[in-house]
Amino acid sequence: MKNFFTFFIALFLVASCAKKSGFKDSDPTLFKEYISGFSSGSISADAPIEVVLTQLDSKALEGVEVDKLFDFSPKVEGKTTINGNFVKFTPENPLEHNKEYQVTFHVDKLFKVKKDLANFYFHIRTKSLQFEVNVRDLQSYNQNYYFLNASIEASDNLSPEIVSDIVKANINGKSLSVRALTNEKNTEIPIIIDSIPTPTDQSQTLTIEWNGSQYDIESSGSSLLNIPTNNDFGVVQLLQNEGENNSFNIVFSAPLQKNQEFRGLIAAENYDGDFRFSTSGNTLKVYADSNFENEVKISVFQGIKSQYGERMKYDFSEKLAFEPIKPQVRLVRNGTILPSSQNLKVNFQTINLKAVEISVLKIYQNNVLQFLQENDLGGAYRLRRVGATIAQKVVPIQATTKNSLSKWSTHAIDLSKIITPEPGAIYRVKIDFKKEYALNCNNDKTPIKEENLLVLEEDGNSDYYDYDDYDYDYDWEERDDPCKDSYYYR
Q1: Quick one: pLDDT band at residue 1, thresholds 50, 70, 90?
Q2: Could you tell me if 131 and 189 are in contact, meaning their C-beta atoms sit under 8 angstroms apart?
Q3: 400 versus 200: which is more confidently predicted?
Q4: DSSP states of 441-487
Q5: 50, 180, 212, 412: least CB-packed within 10 angstroms?
């Protein structure tokens, strides 16, 4: 969830984005007497479909055929269960990826309602399934064998059981073992290319290929890595650490000797500051005092030693591209905030942003127990089923110097100017941003003005109904590009 940051204030103390789709669904506000939440937007193919009832008398379930509360188009087989106010449909098999489903929830099977409220119609769309392999660092088992750390990143949950079918590796045509390091379905699966033999005469090329066509997944690609001989100690990889423009990793062909001095043996173009170092196996992590920008020539000089007593006999240099740090928000962890309206300041940091949106969601006092049954105080599960957004505000980020917005800078928002806390309620604060606020690809110099987007009465009786409803133009392959809309979806 790269596009937002959330923070809880405990007074019992401690809000949320909607986009429109083309479906003609029921108006949720007409059903608010019966329904307080429902599954919507883009969901995992493994996810259940849920409806949250405003209230449910156990007597209303007498004689109700629970498995007939839902209908789907196209048809879906599964099981319906009721737990408190939650009605959950669990598909018998995972839903088809990248497919829309129209859902009908039969309200009249649980409540006596007017004819036009007999059925509540909504829709969901399952996420598309795509994946790619990210190659990481080469490490040594011993002088005769390497292993390569890598990971599969997917747009939806992927089973580790199919890893060996969709990812293949070979060296000079000889197949190598590829195995997952987890047994759980997930969107990120760590893997290793195992038992890579160390060449004895000349370096060889490791080929990694991935293809999901066997499972109807439209993803494929390949990556190559040079594997050096066991008598040629030197640099194998130069890697940027994602999200850290002040550090990089140098991967060597053998584990590094511990407690050796690296000062004077590592240099970066146009950098005169000091470096700090840490080692782990074959990897030397290098930390600088300031961020690098664009392409930087990294030099490694002869003299570095392996744990096998080898000394690097040649100088190495290569350019490493440091991408601009993506727009981000993060919390300044400054201790406990006391629950008083005079001291409700939230401190946060931003980079490459010229504004943020502050949202406050109120979890009503009579819903606090329901919320805490599924969350700790900092939890975010099913928030919109127990509360509603009561305030939203655009807050400009003021530049103090010419380039200050391109560096991490600290700001504060005084919540006492946005809400009047009610004892016993919980307020959740979200700090959000969108493409128009990003510096990376927005050259518009027009200042962004402070603006109230939404202010509602805090009596719990507002007609405002808060629920998820997203556009479906998300492109997983553009998820890391802040100049694309997909970067800003959760």
Answers
A1: very low
A2: no
A3: 200
A4: T----PPPPPEEEEE--SSS--S--------S---GGGTT-TTSGGG
A5: 412
Q: Which amino acid is at 163?
A: V
- Chain position carrying tokens 């059925």: 119
Stated length of the chain: 490
The tens digit of pLDDT for each residue in 372-414 reads: 777 666 666 667 667 778 888 999 998 877 677 888 888 888 8
pTM: 0.79
The C-alpha atoms of residue 181 and residue 6 are separated, in whole angstroms, by 31
Residue with tokens 């890595």: 225
Write the pLDDT tens digit of every residue in 346-372.
888 999 999 999 888 888 777 777 777
SS3 365: helix
Task: Provide φ and ψ at 244, rounded to 5°.
Answer: -125, 95
Residue 218 clears pLDDT 70, i.e. is over it: yes
Residues 6 or more apart whose CB falls under 8 angstroms from that of 22 comprise: none
d(CA 275, CA 253): 22
Based on the number of CB atoms within 10 Å of its own CB, is 487 exposed (0-12), middle (13-18) or buried (19 or more)? buried
Of 392, 324, 306, the C-alpha closest to 15 is 392
* Residues 419, 452: Cα–Cα separation, whole Å: 12
Helix (H, G, I), strand (E, B) or coil at 244: strand
